[in-house]
Amino acid sequence: MAVIKSLDRYYQNFPEMTREKNFIPFWEKSIVEVKKIPIEPEVTRNKKKDTSRFEVHDVSYNGFLKTRLHGILYRSKSVEKSGVIIHIHDYNRTFDRNLIRHLDRSFSHFLITLRGHSPFDEKKPEDSQNEAPSSPGYMVENIIDLETYYVKSVYLDTLKSIDMLRLIKFLDCGRIGIYGKGLGAAAAFFTAAFSDRVAAIICDSPQFINIPMTQNISTGEITSEINDIVSIQKKRRDIIKSNLSYFDLINFSDRISCPAYFITGLNDTISPTECAMGLFNILNVDKTIEVYPEGDNSCGSGDQIEKSINWITGMLTAG
């Protein structure tokens, strides 16, 4: 009963939007501009990485500001023209290496490497994906310049990946699923807000939600990097606060129309449940949330990966 009572404050949390006046025009203009960038995709078969269920292809394409982005495409061997699920890892992390064995063979899967991050490494020790390397500082890269801020790049890179995947003949991109973790979940949410091809999203321990609250309670690298720059540039605090509101998922919430699946742990100090459930509560869509009373930021790993993939493939198949 104590746990049920403690959940009341989460379920009764309904944050309000904090959009700046030119919020929608800013994003509409940004999307028009990024779509003008030539994609120039390169898809190269990598037989050394093939599995019994998938052909593996190394992929690169032009993202925002024509930055060259990379990823790995696991092409289904079971379906000639398969649907596709995009996977996006968290900030300053790589993918959980256990992800590969959980991938649904009836779909192809594109694993995006966030700009500035190392490529996916299947040989990485199983438990090291939860260890935080030194903070790279990308979260404050151009934070004063709304037009070139790092998070804007990450959001638009993900949106651009859909146009890239549509050029690959063996993929069916009519209905796409996106599975994101942390900052990757934020990019998934943004992309669903601006692409009608996204049919379902998974937000595992999502970040960039209700940023004023997050900056006060999160212990994660994203929060610490931003708080550090604010403490140094106090005179620009209001500019930074205004700029960050353009990337707050709360402000995209009314644009989401596809089913959404959230994962959160009550002991997660990096992506606090207060913020994740606040976003979940205000969504007016078919939605599901997995709440782990004893879970932390890693609660979306292990058996939950398979459960998540079963949910998203079910949604894509049902459509």
List the defining traits of the structure above:
single chain; alpha/beta; 319 residues; 9-stranded mixed β-sheet; 21% strand; 9 strands; Rossmann fold
Structure description:
This protein is of the alpha/beta class and 319 residues long. It has one domain (31-121, 134-318): Rossmann fold (3-Layer(aba) Sandwich), CATH 3.40.50. It has helices at residues 2-11, 23-35, 99-102, 150-165, 183-194, 211-217, 221-232, 237-244, 273-282, 303-318, and strands at residues 42-45, 54-62, 68-76, 82-88, 107-113, 171-181, 198-204, 260-265, 287-292. It has a nine-stranded mixed β-sheet, with helices on both faces. Strand 8, helix 9 (273-282) and strand 9 (287-292) form a beta-alpha-beta unit. The protein is globular. The termini are far apart.
Task: Please sum up the structure shown.
The protein is an alpha/beta fold. The protein contains 10 helices and 9 strands. It has one domain: Alpha/Beta hydrolase fold, catalytic domain (Rossmann fold, 3-Layer(aba) Sandwich), CATH 3.40.50.
